[in-house]
Amino acid sequence: MPRNYGYNPYVGYDSTSRPFLFLGTPDARLKPAERVLGLTTETDAIAYPFAALEEARVVHDSFGGAELAIFHKAGLASALDTAVISSGRDIGTVAVFERQLGDQLLTFSANEDGTFSDAETGSTWDILGKATDGPLAGENLTPVLHFDHFWFAWAAFFPETELYSPS
Questions:
Q1: CB within 8 A of 7, min separation 6: which ones?
Q2: pLDDT tens sequence across 94-130
Q3: Could you say which of 17, 34, 120, 160 would form a disulfide bridge with 30 (CB–CB 3.0 to 4.6 Å)?
Q4: Are 58 and 69 in contact (CB under 8 A)?
Q5: What Pfam families does this protein map onto (predicted)?
Q6: For range 138-165, the mean pLDDT
Q7: Checking DSSP bridges between strand 162-163 and strand 45-49, what pairing results, if any?
Q8: Is residue 10 within 8 Å of 80, Cβ to Cβ?
């Protein structure tokens, strides 16, 4: 049986307050279907709401003994918003990297064209953590394993999770 892979059978799932097949009680700190970026260690977990990442575009944080840079880049349509996937609202994409490169701790900012720059060298970086221009061109940041989940699922697996809030 053919299937139209550009069509979403779960229209509106992004904004549901009652997630499909979830029988638990959602953690009330966020809306159940809010997207979060999650990080874990053996003993800790933290969730970063996509909304906060979208607003900041770059977040510097310490977690699990590492200094991290979290990038957000617009341009990814939600597959669960509208019937036609390509018409879904822009939720963006996220990436997490160690800020330490050699003996330098880099400080990043977002550029209007969707790239990122470090203050220390002025190099330009893409969402994949590769320097594309400047003194560090060709260098790669160390990626950090992270998870892209709906809040209800993340909080169910990690009920004691810390919830990131911009200071």
A1: 83, 84, 85
A2: 999 999 999 999 999 999 999 999 999 999 999 999 9
A3: 34
A4: yes
A5: DUF3179
A6: 96
A7: parallel
A8: yes
